[in-house]
Every structure is written in C-alpha cells, then in structure tokens.
Design goal:
Layout (H helix, E strand, L loop, with lengths): L2 E6 L3 H10 L5 E7 L3 H9 L8 H6 L5 E4 L6 H10 L3 E4 L7 H14 L3 E3 L7 H12 L5 E9 L18 H15 L6 E9 L9 E8 L4 E7 L9 E5 L2 E5 L6 E6 L10 E3 L2 E3 L10 E6 L8 H10 L9 H20 L3 E2 L3
Parallel strand pairs: 1-2, 1-3, 3-4, 4-5, 6-9
Antiparallel strand pairs: 6-10, 7-8, 7-16, 8-9, 10-11, 11-12, 12-15, 13-14
Helix pairs in contact: 4-5, 5-9, 7-9
C-alpha cells in the first residue's frame, strides 16, 4: 500500500522530514503548504509540489496523512481540521500548548476515527537507548540518581521559538523530549514529585532554560536540565548506581562505565586539600575498579514513519501513544507551575 503525505508548514524541521521520507518505501510527499511565500518558493525550487492553500491540501483525496510542522500554537486547529477532512495526522512536538488542548485533539481523533500521533523522534536517540540498555542490564547495581541535560551557548534561535504566544521557550522545545525520555526509563513507575526552576538569561519573554528534579516512586531522583547560555557543557548523561557510574559526554559518543570490583580498600591514600586530609573523597585504586566503554546502541529513525504506516494498515499499534503524550504535557505544566510557585508539585502520588 502506498501512502501519500502532505506537509503543512515548510520550515527547517519540515525539510528534515521531507529528506527522511524520500528514503522510506511506500511513503511519498504529495506536496506542501506554507503561509510564507518564500517557503513556498523554496519548496517549488526543489521541485516539491505546492498547494494553493491549506483548503486545497485538505481537499486532496489522494492524501491520507498530514504532517503539521508549523509553530506550536496552531498545531491544534490544523490537526482538528485535517482529521475532520478525513486525514490522519502526524504533529510535530509539542503536540499543542496545554493538556486541555490535547484532550480536545484526542476527542477529535475519536470522533472522526482518524489516527493522531506526535513526532517524538528523540525516542530513537542513540544516547538515550544506550543508557536505557545499561540500566536494564543492571551493570551499575541499584540506580539511585540520573542526570540528563543538553547545553548550548547561543540562546534561543531568532524565530517564533522566542515568542510566548507561539509556544516558544525551552520547556516546550527541548523539555518535551527529555521529560518524555525520563518517563520512558521507568515504565509503570509513578512520578511523585516535581521541583523546577526556569532561566531567562538571554530572553525575558520565554524560558531559555530550566532545571527539573523528578522524584519517582521507586526512590530514584532524576535531574533534567536544558541551558542555552552554557559555555562549558556538562555531560549529556550521568547515571549513578550502587556499584558504579556511567557517563555519556556528548551526542555520538560511547558510554563510559566505571564499576567497583569489591576489592578491600583499607589502605587508602588520603587526598591533601588546602584545609587538611580526606580519605572519604580519595580516588579508588586502579585494582579496585573496572573501566569499560560500550558503543552506542544503533537505531533507525525511519522506524517512526514505518510504524505510522503499519498503524494505518492495521498491522501494528502506535509506538507513540496519546496517553504517554498527555503525561508529558501535564509534566511540562507541572514544571511551569513549580517554577512559578517556587514549590514542590505532587504529580502522581
């Protein structure tokens, strides 16, 4: 079965989707629509068909799938119109700006019988999959803390992502990915508490960074952090367990694991500090630890669209479930609320 997809909004992310779809069997781009003439002209220069209007796109009976890659604030209205026109919908993240909006979108999908999903593409990030694998293997013993962060130093891109009315800011832009990953690391475990702070270093209209402490019912705490004014980046992942520590420095790098061997360490050489000696913080001897490096788990992001097509053909369930998307949306709302109230938010307890 051949599927035809039309794209609404042809910015940088939509161009990425177009190039990806070009390499996927049984899926083709029928055309695009963008409210900006320069983006329509750019698409035409690449020999991509351009619709005369959104109405023309939705009226194309050969199209069974619509990708929404517009600013965040209009995802909901376009998605509902598309489903009412008989189209299935892939929305870029975040799917919308509030849990109430998402509830209405979900109801529209049920009412029209159309498939609605969200492009949570960073579920295929290889660093995330590598950390997940190491945790599942139990190499670090009992996990008690994780840190997941992305750092940049150029502020927010100079477009609608800087504007609150369009759904800008880093919680909605990057938080939607990292918080989704955090929840996936602990399937079936309730998230009990959220404590968050926002930054406005480079932008006063929207958050340009945030830090969130997530307290899970299994006793594990996870720090999720995004910064856009960090000139020395901290590790992408840092995982602490009772028997060892794992770290991924940056994207595209292997994971480094340091584990205890159980060797008796009575003869510890103390560290000399300016104010005295300490054995507590002294490094372990080489014979008492084992250091190893594991390669990244490989993934194929084309699986996202392959799954979408399989859902439409009744062969698979969606790998991005709307109840998971709703949980992340409510978690982002809890992050904003915690930062505003300067308080710990009880989330699922």
């Amino acid at each position: 079965m051949k599927h035809r997809l039309a794209i609404v909004g042809f910015g940088g992310m939509a161009g990425w989707h177009y190039d990806l779809i070009e390499g996927i069997e049984d899926l083709t781009v029928a055309g695009i629509w963008d409210i900006k003439e320069e983006r329509r002209d750019y698409a035409a220069s690449r020999q991509i068909p351009v619709y005369g209007s959104l109405e023309d796109l939705l009226a194309d009976e050969t199209v069974d799938l619509v990708l929404i890659a517009t600013p965040n604030d209009v995802h909901k209205s376009i998605a509902v119109r598309a489903m009412e026109a008989g189209k299935n919908v892939v929305s870029e993240k975040p799917v919308t700006l509030s849990s109430e909006d998402l509830r209405e979108m979900t109801e529209a999908a049920k009412r029209t019988g159309r498939f609605l999903t969200v492009h949570q593409n960073r579920r295929w990030d290889e660093d995330f999959l590598t950390v997940k694998k190491v945790m599942e293997e139990g190499k670090l013993g009992e996990i008690f803390r994780l840190e997941s962060r992305v750092h940049g130093s150029r502020g927010i891109p100079g477009d609608w992502r800087q504007e609150k009315e369009h759904g800008g800011g880093m919680v909605l832009d990057w938080g939607v990915h990292l918080l989704d990953q955090a929840l996936l690391l602990f399937p079936g475990v309730k998230l009990e508490t959220v404590y968050a702070t926002l930054t406005n270093v480079t932008n006063q209209l929207v958050d340009d960074g945030f830090s969130a402490d997530l307290g899970f019912a299994n006793g594990i705490h996870m720090l999720v952090e995004v910064g856009t004014s960090n000139f020395i980046s901290l590790p992408r992942w840092y995982v602490l367990g009772s028997d060892g520590t794992a770290m991924i420095r940056d994207w595209g790098q292997d994971i480094r694991i340091v584990r205890a061997l159980g060797t008796d360490e009575k003869d510890v050489t103390p560290v000399r500090t300016a104010a005295g000696l300490t054995k507590t913080m002294a490094p372990r001897r080489d014979d008492s630890i084992h250091t190893e490096t594991e390669p990244e788990v490989k993934s194929d992001i084309r699986e996202f669209y392959q799954n979408v097509m399989a859902v439409l053909e009744g062969r698979e369930e969606s790998r991005i479930k709307l109840e998971e998307v709703m949980r992340v949306m409510k978690l982002m709302e809890a992050v904003f609320r915690s930062a505003e109230e300067k308080a710990v938010i009880r989330f699922e307890s």
